[in-house]
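In response to a reviewer's request, we include the raw inputs and outputs for one of the modeled complexes. The two entities were modeled together in a single run.
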Amino acid sequence: MNMEISRRSFLKGAGAGVAATTIGAFGFGEAEAAFVAELRPYKLAGTTETRNTCPYCSVACGVIIYSKGDIAQGNAVAMHLEGDVDHPTNRGTLCPKGAALLDFIKSETRLTKPKVRRAGSDKFEEISWNEALDNIARLMKDDRDANFIERNMDGVQVNRWTTTGFLAASATTNETAFLTYKAVRSTGIVAFDNQARV
Amino acid sequence: MTNSWTDIRNTDLVVIMGGNAAEAHPCGFKWVTEAKANRGAKLIVVDPRFTRSASVADFYAPIRQGSDIAFLLGVIKYCIDNDKVQWDYVKAFTNAAYILKEGFAYSDGLFTGYDAEKREYDRSTWDYEIGEDGYVLVDETLQNPRCVWNMLKEHIAVYTPEMVERICGTPKDKFLKVAEMISECSARDKTMTSMYALGWTQHSKGSQNIRSMAMLQLILGNIGVRGGGMNALRGHSNIQGLTDIGLMSNLIPGYLNIPTEREVDYATYISSRGFKPLRPNQMSYWQNYSKFFVSFQKAMWGSAATPENDFAYHYLPKLDLPAYDILRAFEMMDQGQMHGYFCQGFNPLLSFPDRGKITRSLGKLKFLVVIDPLETETSRFWENHGTFNDVDTASIQTEVYQLPSTCFAEDEGALVNSGRWLQWHWAAQNPPGEAKHDTWIMAQLYLRLKKLYQEEGGKFPDAILNLHWPYADPEDPKPDELAREMNGYAVTDLRDPNDPTKVLLEAGKQVAGFGVLRDDGSTACGCWIYSGCFNENGNNMARRDNTDPDATGAYPNWTFSWPANRRILYNRASADLDGKAWDPTRKLIEWNGEKWEGYDVPDIAVTAKPREVGPFIMNPEGQSRLFTRGMMRDGPFPAHYEPFESPVVNVVAPAVRGNPVARVFESDRQSFGDAEEFPYAATSYRLTEHFHYWTKHVWVNAVLQPEFFVEISEELASEKGIDKGGWCRVWNKRGSVHAKAVVTKRIQPLICDGKPVHIVGIPLHWGFTGAAKNGMGPNSLTPFVGDANIETPEFKAFLVNIERSDGPASA
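The model returned the following structure tokens for the whole complex.
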């Protein structure tokens, strides 16, 4: 987490503070306490702020995601998102797409399990990661071994695999892109492309 | 972008043509608003539709889609005819004075060397005259009739305001107003910025659209300056990064090239990349190519890349074609020549042209792997959805794997914005269900394939078995490890060449930048242009210091901008021949008598004397190119060509259909239509409420724009009896779609060459998965042909017919 900005640290600290205290500590009477009990708690209390960028267009607006839970524990869940006011480009603003990003993260049509559709079938079936990845690696190897071109007609080493292609994403990180590059290029795949061409 | 979003605040004139920033890039467009409010900047919008960008423009001019080159060459002609040229800039920083080779010519829409059968040029005459000293011959007086400047004037003479009106449908007075406003930016203290997007790229001559504006910007002296530049508004959050890292058929990270099979060995490959300077004293920075290439090979194959095996040169595939681009890939699939396909965060069933062909081709695959955080139409191409995906499921034999990956909220790493800023971000939540990071998925696929080759052997396993995999947990490489690899590191101690006892950088340390990379195997660097992003100072992409000294818009310590944290490319051109700012109020870098200094990292050696070294250091000329030699397939100057499907014939070259060198597959030619059968000029676009095919999965956006529609003028609606909000059918030889009709004043018929041309606007956000209503899109109708240089499909200009309808059967 990159939280060196003091305003942010302050906000985070203040949030945690609200969660840890009750209004009674301020010396209000019973009536006030009853009133306060009916109030909706501050929803960002006790949340973690994380700096991120909008995944849509390339203006790349800064966003702050508020989440509950702990990434290291595997239970962090985003519950609010807003524009980053410290970001030089968007200065806190978001467009109609960016403003609705929380619904993207929580979309009902997000994928949560690996699936396979068998030849001729009319449905997806669940499959374990292990089996899916092993099957795909086998399909790759069989196709590569059957079709890989080591030398052309002139005897030049060309080492290309033309019968399987790979389309890379346009919203993954540079780091995913580089690992993808390494893995794909090492196989000799030449039908390798990304959204830049489209 | 040569500049950045925040730099737009410095401009005097914004030209939005080939884009619609107010709707497609709303939060970047705020910098246009800022320039208008604070500097009195003006905004011009040239577009077939009166968009929301147009609604806040100071001047709007309509144009027929696919005719931008004629318009822009018309503006260039206007500037030259009216002496609105930044002469010192043009003479010092462009190749205007270079003498062209005898034999080069242009007539009837074709340059010299055309081979109609191959649809290709012999480009040998498209070059300079080289003198005995090995340098280009120049005529600084610009008197020689064969100098670039005079050849350019002759080439564009046909694009008069009257001709622009005939071709583009832009009324002459509106064209002249735009030309006049633009021409004022030839003054040293006036700057114009060009903001463009897919409205320019998605044409069979997309590259030349952009070139035309780049030439205009050079003539006005607007490249390299604050508030100027060529600013591509990229569509996706990391399309810039994916391009930089070279995830394309013919690229190596940092805009190096995959070898062709004519480059039989490393010596041959590198010999054509020496890039000797074409003018005295020039840096010709690509002379360092071998350092970047060898360092890349070391990052890929580590200790297996040795001087003895030419640093594993043969581990790279060698191309027999310019590229196995996406159109070729699907053509091969359709022909049964491709059996397996991976889509990582990509939905070709909706985003590639001629959907019928895409569906048919996917059904011929043996296996398809889709890696995505969301349901996609592509992963369910085999599923019958009535009108919206009418396939015979049982007959499709493709095995489909759908692998759940993460979205931005769950991953960590850098995305590169349009302005080349590498902005690191952090994960805010854990992946849902069994979804996995893309890095883990790619590592697993690689490791499992590697294991099979270790156990069984097989075809050329060397490049797979020896791939450098230096990760603490090989099963799950981490973003910071990958970023450090791209930055580059010393493989062995780097010693001072002048004093070998001195170690400049110890083995294993991160290099400070690409300047220290070597071609002897002692450095490794995954992507040389990113070098400096994660060095011994730490992760510079994670920096979040938003201070901006003197409010120049540079934000020099906010994240990291490639290359070398430079914020404006070609920034040496912001200063005159002696190194003083053209406009003192817009100082960027200046020569102080000893070195260059200012607000940005100089784009030139800091001690390179003005008047000696030109600003365009990547070019062997040291100067920019109004004439591009043989570097582009379709001509050293842009020329007007109609789209492959056009409502009118090409009035400057009636015999030429489309771009004469754009590739057309035989099976697609018969699906092109002509204006007699399909009289209406269609175009595709995005809405501000949606992002491609993602936000139809987002409830809020699905509510905001729930349903597919097409947009037509009141005139066309009345001619065809189509009601406002009523159903219509739009079709051509490739497909047919039903849509609700938005009848609007935002689209007006144009008069082109004396005939009315009606425009049909088709937005692209619907499919058969997600929260929005099922719908179709433009790719059911668009032609399977791409730009002549890079094969970007012609999505922006094609022909359709339209009629009133009762809606789809299963709406």
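As requested, we also summarize the result in words. Chain B has a mean pLDDT of 97. Chain B has 22 helices and 33 strands.
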